[in-house]
Design brief:
Layout lengths: L12 H51 L5 H10 L8 E9 L24 E2 L3 E5 H8 L30 E12 L9 E12 L6
Antiparallel strand pairs: 1-3, 1-4, 2-3, 4-5
Helix pairs in contact: 1-2, 2-3
């Protein structure tokens, strides 16, 4: 009589359970990978749009250093990027470039006000936020000119040419890109994109 190992017939349920667990892990990884690709692709596309918008706005600011210059930029932004699904403009800074580079001056790198009120650094920049864009979109414009209640009172557009041999103006846009969930159990993701552009003001428009 042959010896037996005492083991009964093999139960296939344990193998099936292992396969099921592996399949679940594979699905989760695949969904995460697809979500990451979608997010990266969307962010890259929006970044290009935001950069194009910044260049367009700074050209307008350089061509029109009038009292309504910055308000016009807000209007253009409110009717453009601010209406794009999945994109929320968080901050717009119109600034005077400094000697240390084309980026925004450090003193201007501050949160925008929560309400549509004047904000910025005297003689250096004006800072606008979502509240300003919402007000403009609703047809609520600030007082004309560069008075204390004007949103661009800190760095009045009409003073940007006087006293500068080579006057420059810069625009910085910060926008939050939100990619909604494409699968029920995958949460939406988001990231902030930045774009900065600088242009020389034409003295002839003074």
């Amino acid at each position: 009589m042959g010896a037996t190992d005492g083991a009964g017939p093999r139960d296939g349920s344990s193998d099936s359970g292992a396969v099921l667990v592996e399949a679940v892990f594979a699905i989760v990884l695949l969904v995460a990978l697809v979500g990451g690709v979608v997010h990266v692709g969307s962010t890259m596309g929006v970044r290009a749009t935001v950069e194009h918008t910044a260049r367009s706005l700074v050209r307008s600011a350089a061509a029109d250093p009038s009292a309504s210059s910055d308000t016009s930029l807000l209007g253009a932004l409110a009717s453009g990027l601010a209406d794009d699904a999945g994109l929320r403009v968080q901050r717009l800074i119109v600034f005077r470039p400094q000697d240390d580079g084309p980026g925004i001056p450090q003193v201007c790198d501050q949160p925008p006000p929560v309400n549509a009120v004047p904000a910025g650094v005297a003689g250096v920049c004006n800072i606008f936020g979502a509240a300003h864009l919402a007000a403009v979109a609703a047809g609520e414009w600030p007082p004309p000119g560069c008075g204390p209640a004007s949103w661009d009172a800190a760095w009045c557009p009409t003073t940007r040419v006087h006293g500068d041999a080579a006057p420059l103006v810069g625009v910085r846009i910060d926008a939050l890109v939100e990619v909604p969930a494409s699968v029920g159990f995958v949460p939406s993701v988001g990231s902030v994109v930045h774009a900065t552009a600088v242009a020389a003001i034409d003295p002839e428009v003074e």
